[in-house]
Design a protein that fits this description.
alpha+beta; 25% strand; 3 domains
């Protein structure tokens, strides 16, 4: 199949892109990497009247490491970020997660911003972004606004981004002190979407857990923090975190997720795997944090 007819726009500035988008927001889509959008257009899962290709806009392919974290422009490809030595040093969690995103051919064209805006609940980057307290900048004809990761995702493929807004950059907050991390996922084959995955971050202060982040993905309509599980770890000495406590935290995660029951895996399987990955990820994150202390 091929897409339905549309008008193809190639703006030279973000202001032009925002103006075109604002002229007919409900009937327009922005094209960056196109690794999801083009397939959906060809299958006629999505129809548009205006396709706004922002690839000719200069200066949107940057990747910067600053004191507050990693800042990525709207046209920075997955491989741009994955191959950055500065990003690897500053946020190894992000580099590790990117190695699990599809295959190298996809990562050569797909963009970080596009993955977040697509909001596939089984995708890796939304969970990492949420775990790292990220935010993004969206621009429209009316100006710009900042949206935090914990405010962005509504449900599968649905976000709080307005139809007349185009995202110009995304920020991943950096980690400080004795913070350990882990990225875990289960797929049928490397590069497939996750049947279940969990991102964990653990920060130690004076040997005890001062902060914990547990963000499952692929087991619900969007990535979410499981605060009820995180709170069980707060204030506990790292040396006192035993198998029994990890089992309790894992059980809390399994109970909190809401996975689908489909041809790829059953609900029960995904619940079980979410707990197993939580337990495994927390042990690795705690060990990592102890080494950084």
């Amino acid at each position: 199949m091929k897409p339905t007819p549309f008008t193809y726009h190639v703006p030279n500035t973000i202001d032009q892109a925002a103006r075109i988008l604002g002229s007919d927001p409900e009937n327009s889509r922005v094209l960056a990497g196109g690794q999801s959008l083009v397939s959906m257009l060809n299958l006629r899962l999505v129809t548009v009247g205006n396709l706004i290709d922002i690839n000719r806009i200069p200066g949107l392919d940057y990747v910067r490491v600053e004191a507050g974290g990693v800042i990525v422009g709207a046209l920075a490809r997955h491989n741009d970020v994955e191959s950055s030595h500065e990003v690897r040093r500053a946020l190894p969690l992000l580099t590790s997660a990117l190695s699990h995103v599809a295959h190298s051919q996809i990562r050569n064209r797909g963009t970080i911003v596009g993955s977040l805006c697509h909001a596939d609940p089984a995708a890796e980057l939304p969970a990492v972004w949420l775990a790292l307290d990220g935010e993004l900048t969206a621009q429209s004809e009316g100006g710009t606004r900042t949206i935090r990761a914990d405010e962005f995702f509504i449900s599968s493929f649905t976000t709080t981004l307005e139809p007349n807004e185009v995202v110009t950059e995304v920020r991943f907050s950096g980690t400080t002190g004795a913070t350990g991390w882990s990225f875990e996922e289960v797929t049928k084959r490397h590069g497939d979407f996750a049947l279940a995955g969990v991102v964990t971050l653990v920060t130690l202060k004076n040997g005890a857990v001062s902060s914990a982040r547990i963000v499952p993905f692929g087991v619900g309509s969007k990535p979410i923090r499981i605060t009820s599980a995180e709170q069980q770890l707060l204030g506990v000495s790292a040396s006192a975190i035993d198998d029994a406590l990890l089992d309790q935290v894992a059980a809390a995660v399994s109970a909190a997720v809401d996975p689908a029951n489909d041809i790829h895996a059953s609900e029960e399987y995904r619940r079980h795997v979410a707990g197993v990955l939580t337990r495994r990820g927390l042990r690795r994150a705690i060990d990592d944090a102890q080494q950084r202390a």
